[in-house]
Amino acid sequence: MKKYLLTLSAFILTALTFTSCLNSSHTEEIYTSRLGSDECFNYVKDLETGESIITHGASYIFTYNFTEALIDVQISGLQIASNFSGLSFKLPSFKMGADNKKGFYVCSGENITPVNTSENYVFNKFSFRSLPARSYNGVSQPVFCLTFTINNRYQVTVLQKDNMYFGTTNGAAIDGSALESNYDAAYAVTLDPNNKKAVLRIYNAKFGPNMMPQTFGVKDLPVEFNSAGYVIREMDKSFPLFDTSNKTIEGWSISDLSINASLNTGATIAFKCDLGENGSFHVNAPLEYLIYPENEKQ
């Protein structure tokens, strides 16, 4: 199959079809998506002091007006420092754009003054990329990539707790006997910002040509957050794997695990694993938010 390119016209048509079902009584095609305070957290870096904190309690509302090609953004409950919390902003409408190759709705701006506050707040930089209608196996899995800087000091990165990635999985048997490359697996990373831990779940994993697809996970992974996303790197430790019923799989383990997640692009995952009678493998997977397979045979 040729590389999957979601064109602007096709993407807008999909969005219009989707929103028409929800807003059939309206002349404008409008879809509203919410990112609740229980679904995300903020990594805030103070550009003056260099210090960073994790803050909670913020929620975001994104309104897509496909008739006017505009995106409206509302923020509530935002904390940017220990003495600046409970902030709410309504930003002026942004012109909606689209990433033709990756399928994102996008908008950005500089030196933006909120429309609903008398305080002296300016969003010096604002960037938003989203896939509000993405789903996996019938379950909604929207993507919101949001960063902004307030008053040239507080750099905010909004991180979702649940993250799903897709792409090419490259597997190699540790004994060098076989190679495998496919687009079958899905990778889910759940972040716990309070304890700085993460859970990785891999669905439909197939690392060798004779391996049957498997679904498993690993928990209690130390994670570090940054302005670009997050990093997990455990090169000298082995973790047991658990199955879909959350039970440890005897004899299965994962080691030399690294995950480098970039908010705007996806994640790169690499590890070694011992899957019992299925074999032992080196795995690396450059991942994105949607699947873009190349050169698959017709």
Could you characterize what this model shows?
The chain is mainly beta and 298 residues long. It is built from one helix and 25 strands. The protein has one helix at 8-22, and strands at residues 30-35, 40-46, 52-55, 59-65, 70-78, 87-90, 94-95, 97-98, 105-112, 123-131, 135-136, 139-140, 143-150, 154-160, 162-167, 169-173, 179-182, 186-192, 197-205, 214-222, 224-225, 229-242, 248-262, 266-275, 280-288. The strands form four sheets. Strands 15, 16, 17, 18, 19, 20, 21, 22, 23, 24 and 25 form an eleven-stranded antiparallel β-sheet that branches. Strands 3-2-14-13-10-9-8 form a seven-stranded antiparallel β-sheet, with no helix packed on it. Strands 1, 4, 5, 6 and 7 form a five-stranded antiparallel β-sheet that branches. A hairpin with a 4-residue loop joins β24 (266-275) and β25. The longest helix is centred in the N-terminal third of the chain and has 15 residues, at 8-22. The termini are close together. The relative contact order is 0.14.
Write the layout of secondary structure elements.
Layout: H1 8-22, E1 30-35, E2 40-46, E3 52-55, E4 59-65, E5 70-78, E6 87-90, E7 94-95, E8 97-98, E9 105-112, E10 123-131, E11 135-136, E12 139-140, E13 143-150, E14 154-160, E15 162-167, E16 169-173, E17 179-182, E18 186-192, E19 197-205, E20 214-222, E21 224-225, E22 229-242, E23 248-262, E24 266-275, E25 280-288
Antiparallel strand pairs: 1-4, 2-3, 2-14, 4-5, 5-6, 5-7, 8-9, 9-10, 10-13, 11-12, 13-14, 15-18, 15-25, 16-17, 16-25, 18-19, 19-20, 21-22, 22-23, 23-24, 24-25
